């Protein structure tokens, strides 16, 4: 049984679940970035032979899930919950992927912080004894996001330097009450934070306040300091949002230095035509599953705080003059 | 600690949370229907003085939440989780409503079964000791749904008799580890079920297979029969989906008779211009909060199974020839 959390947002898991299997897939563009060697699969064709980008995103997600299960000879009937979400309207990739997963499905939406919301919820379901195994997955695709949120790609609209590039890819994990793999030891579900930012070309800065809020709340709840973590990975603030995050961290009296990295900054090189960096649900997912887990196994990191971030907007509300609130959910992973 | 659920989907709550406060709001059309006397608030103006239907849906949701809290002098700082979702792209009503709710937010998407997914998740968080109080809410609006999923209302597109009319309204509940009110005693999270139905003008029939799947699984998991419930409320199958549901129930050997009612059928009279009946996230929510809870207090029902249903589609995928999978999440409410 977990501790009660009155006035707090962090749940310390008393039966920390293990990530017993995981897999990540990325597109060709991500495969040309600096993290290429960490990804399990790099696609030659970001359409994966499909006729539309939406069908491609679904196929990438399904393939990633299947590989996650097959890697450890897991079967869908061993899984009590499938939790997933994505950026598309009515989380359609997640919903369609659940057609072939014959277990209780929980659809979630938390924009680009979907990965940590899903893994956090799954961890709680196992910690509380409601499940032995939970599958959680997420996906995003440059082409589906561009045409849904911005313009048809064929228009070739000039991008601003603060724009982010949606990561094409998917990540999936299986959490279990026992087995081998990194442990999820605590979860901090964030609040929706709105500082009134309205620039849809700078989502990174819109999400940074939520990331700081979740980080400071996490440290307060746990009584820990930045020094207790080997890595604090935000995502996907990108270069522009990271600037704002660094300023806000200083204001909050936090000295992050090299401890802080951002998934949106790491996934592409500055030479790639991606504006301020990466974004999309897959961004935090593939950087965590690809880079962080593998470096944990190598012994580089032993306790990592992942703070995935999401910008809460849609294609209509920004035209209606609404601001862009942000949210950030954090999980602690330990080996 | 709940029972493990290997091969099952139902969680029997060992510390059943109470619904200590609830409120429901509906639009003028719903206020002219047969359930009018049960609703807490009936709006004269379905725009609630706002300039766009999206702003109106948000205002209705926020007003409903505030009344839910104020009714029992509850404060946001007493609540550990806010869980919400809606039909709009990127669940924007839910996300925006969370701007003023200073606690951990979990965004969910489960189409018109959002109400039971949210209440079910909240019940588990309390049962497991992760929270003392959880706020869960949902909303829908005829005008926002029409223009997002179908056509601008101004086009006055002729509707088919199997179409459903999206309920304008919102419902909110506060669940608590102790206090007075109906108890949530078990939760059955559904699977995504896809029989390949593609007719977007008949979502009821697309959802009926999911409702049957969840009902039969729930009965199997709990060892109960239809006779153990005073009411089995599906929603929102509507008149057309109810026909399919009744056929499938018969096939499954279930004799439902008068025990079964559907929120989408109940909320409007056959004389109202609503096609086959009501739909939308608010449909199951306001019929449960309005009708069911009040009739439970009056002694008409003591154990009710609510099976909210969702059709998993979006405005793009049906044009791409995709089918419409369904999902149904069930909760048991007892007094």
Characterize this entry briefly.
The structure is a homodimer of 335-residue chains. The first copy, chain A, is α/β, with parallel strands linked by helices and 335 residues long. The first copy, chain A, has 9 helices and 14 strands.
Q: Keywords for this structure?
A:
Peroxisomal Thiolase, Chain A, domain 1, 335 residues, 6-stranded mixed β-sheet, alpha/beta, homodimer
Tell me what you see in this structure.
Two copies of one chain form a homodimer. Chain A is an alpha/beta fold. Chain A has two domains: 10-176, Peroxisomal Thiolase, Chain A, domain 1, CATH 3.40.47.40; 183-334, Peroxisomal Thiolase, Chain A, domain 1 (3-Layer(aba) Sandwich). Chain A contains nine helices and 14 strands. In chain A, the strands form three sheets. The first copy, chain A, has a six-stranded mixed β-sheet with strand order 1-9-14-13-10-11, sandwiched between helices. In chain A, strands 3-2-8-6-4-5 form a six-stranded mixed β-sheet, sandwiched between helices.
